């Protein structure tokens, strides 16, 4: 088993918890051993919620396996109904409980509770978290929604936002405002904020906004087929995609498209001299398919970056991501192995990473700036402030969060360049404390010689010169120089060898 910190997706029952925790009036009874209650921490700690998830665990232990664990499950269901009085109940097993084959679906059907009880069949050893969320929401919609008369005013449902989603809370606000500008109302937003009774009203909307395909595409397809509701294909992340989204929904509902771009702050920067620092920066993108696809378009078409590589961890979207990669002239990376992601990033040697919390760790190790664009993420990616990814304000947020790592990276590079200066070296203290600078002793200023296990030796002068190379490409410069020296049979790398290698690879 992988440690949680190095797992892109949890098991599918965590996806079901994301749906249940985002909703109101829904309770999840999970047949699981005591250790699986760790999932509570994901919501209460990382997302900083003020209440625990609406989940009841059977929490069987090893000694219970020789007795009737099925009775533990039915007791937990009755207790959950009596205590929480939910509008509906979902039931299922964790990956561990799946092995004992107690059949929660059959047990739930035989209990005769006076509320809808929806059984989840989530194959824990074949599928993962996003599938669990998608399947759970689909089953809820399929069991609770039905055809009904449309609203008098053009209206839509927002489908896909869940608990533990990347900025889902703020995306809802931004998309709702975009729709309101065109006179379109939101009928139901689900799963986040919805009740089972709200899901029963889904059929009143004229169309559906598919905000996150990973968690709601199955439900959107069912609504299109069974309720006659078309759904959007454009995710409004970035200026261009937001404009396309507005045109798409206006066409679906036969209303006039309208988009207020007065809040957009990117154009003035794009026209400035400072923006030339960003042009052509090579970026590597990795995360869930929806955010990677959107970020690739923003990076190339709106920020002037070069996409050096891209990929996703959710294999359900491998085909569209491979097709997208071909359009960008790179090879798609489809994997959930963070070590493979790290090796690929290191080989590509980008100047910035747009990824998940995992790539943030990778970037720290490789000395490459990273901006988080996708789940999984940590507590710092759940800001208290308004920080959407979608719409016009979302475009402003993207601009800030992508530019700052590069600008800060430049500042760090300058500090590295002047690290031997009498005022800026480590022992000098903060430069704004006047008169505190001390001269570094000569011995301490001499960097250690890097001696590879097998290969050329770096001389002092070459090491100092290498430090002048920006840190985000320094690793590539070192590797190229060592390769060049090895091919030429050079045993010691001096400044001359460094520049000869630079000239060789610049041809």
TrEMBL record:
Signal peptide: none annotated. It comes from the Bacteria. Binds 1 [4Fe-4S] cluster per heterodimer. The cluster is bound at the heterodimer interface by residues from both subunits. The keyword Transport does not apply. [4Fe-4S] cluster binds at residue 36. Its EC number is 1.3.7.7. It catalyses: chlorophyllide a + oxidized 2[4Fe-4S]-[ferredoxin] + 2 ADP + 2 phosphate = protochlorophyllide a + reduced 2[4Fe-4S]-[ferredoxin] + 2 ATP + 2 H2O. Gene3D superfamilies: 1.20.89.20, Nitrogenase molybdenum iron protein domain, Proto-chlorophyllide reductase 57 kD subunit B. Residues 12-406 form the Nitrogenase/oxidoreductase component domain. GO terms for molecular function: 4 iron, 4 sulfur cluster binding; ATP binding; metal ion binding; oxidoreductase activity, acting on iron-sulfur proteins as donors; oxidoreductase activity, acting on the CH-CH group of donors, iron-sulfur protein as acceptor. InterPro entries: ChlB/BchB/BchZ (IPR050152), LI-POR_suB-like_C (IPR013580), Nase/OxRdtase_comp1 (IPR000510), P-CP_red_C (IPR042298), Protochl_reductB (IPR005969), Protochlorophyllide_Rdtase (IPR016209). Keywords: 4Fe-4S, ATP-binding, Bacteriochlorophyll biosynthesis, Chlorophyll biosynthesis, Iron, Iron-sulfur, Metal-binding, Nucleotide-binding, Oxidoreductase, Photosynthesis. This is Light-independent protochlorophyllide reductase subunit B. It comes from Tranquillimonas rosea.
